[in-house]
Specification:
2 copies of one chain form a homodimer. By secondary structure, chain A is an all-alpha fold. Chain A has 9 helices and no strands. Chain A starts with a helix and ends with a helix. The interface between A and B is large, with 44 and 44 residues. Chain A binds a DNA duplex (30 and 30 nucleotides) through helix 1 and helix 3.
DNA sequence: ATTTAAACAGACCGATCAGTCGGTCTTAAA
DNA sequence: TTTAAGACCGACTGATCGGTCTGTTTAAAT
């Protein structure tokens, strides 16, 4: 083999990181495979050696990003924490893993390939797993009586949309400022804005 | 002239409506001029008779959608209403004008053509006008002491992101259900979820 | 009736894109 | 040392897209 197995894995991860940044910044359709190759420092042939297609790459990348995000969160979140504290922590990781604009690319991806295609089904599965994880966080908050409400699924959807939409106006903020904004927004949601 | 001035304007509006629906549903890049022609029932030549380019069409459409949205809101909103009532009304029109997913297409559009291009500048101008209008609504709520806070710009950004993000999970809902969700989400934001 | 020009239509062009394919290089096994 | 295969390269292909150009139709002006 030209390169070691490890070298190959390194190349693969370089491609994934480059693709993640570009998809997040420019969207799915607007990011070409050539763009990704330039950013990752490999050839188009090399890229297609690691991934069968653009769809394949995106799904691989999305799966990894979402999984890693919850793993990082899970390492820090403790059972002793209140659901409110866990939510603040989630907001931080939401910013950190820049999965914020990845959601956008994901929607574009889904609408482009269709929810019924095989790739669409796989992607929806990834999203659902992610959602369920968040929903269980919300359910904890409700069951413990920390939060008001009786529909964890709806509330989870609203809060996730909240965090996702928040990222719209923040493409230029640095992470520190973004985290501040997310903390403030979380506080607003918890306390309400009514006087 | 082959058709009357009125007929031409009718064709133009058909194109705009078709484009609005497609851009909202599929995004900017994923919607081709041919798609729009099919939906509008005209030829590509005819489309380019009314609009110089895809960018031109999108900006025209966005301007019209955003302007019309505030006009409709303004016709119903009365000075006697509380800011809270005005916000609920805004949520309704946000759903009605389906400008929800148009925002998404707008971001994609902006990142694709760049904020420094002439079209980008024009689009940013449209967005800013829209934002300022919303910010003045928020400022009213703060000044009247209805809502807590001292930064109307930040609060406006957060609430707009809230509404925008909410539309992610709702591509299949009908308008009645969507309005219900938006009203509930507005209530959550006002009251807070903390017990 | 003739002319004029707006309102279309559709063939066409160059660019770009996702994906393919044959080939080269390097490492590890035999 | 030979060989086999994984890692990688880059030219090529077919399709698609935005945009142009030439031509045709028709309502209105003369």
């Amino acid at each position: 083999m030209k390169k070691t197995k490890d070298d190959a894995e390194l190349t693969k991860q370089a491609i994934v990181e480059a693709a993640k940044g570009l998809f997040s910044a420019k969207g799915y359709a607007a990011t070409s495979m050539a763009d990704i190759c330039s950013a990752a420092g490999c050839s188009r042939g090399g890229l297609y050696h690691h991934f069968d297609s653009k769809e394949d790459l995106f799904i691989y990348l999305a799966d990894q990003a979402f999984t890693v995000s919850w793993e990082q969160w899970g390492e820090v979140a403790r059972d002793g924490m209140t659901a409110t504290e866990q939510l603040y922590l989630y907001a931080d990781y939401f910013v950190d893993t820049l999965q914020k604009p990845l959601n956008k690319a994901g929607e574009e991806f889904l609408s482009r390939i269709g929810p019924d295609s095989e790739a669409g089904q796989r992607f929806i599965g990834i999203l659902q797993t992610y959602m369920q994880r968040f929903e269980s966080l919300v359910r904890t908050g409700l069951e413990r009586g920390e939060w008001k409400g009786d529909n964890p699924q709806e509330l989870a959807m609203i809060i996730l949309g909240y965090y996702s939409g928040l990222s719209d106006s923040i493409p230029m903020m640095d992470k520190a400022d973004a985290k501040k904004l997310y903390r403030k927004a979380t506080m607003l949601l918890l306390e309400g804005i009514k006087q």
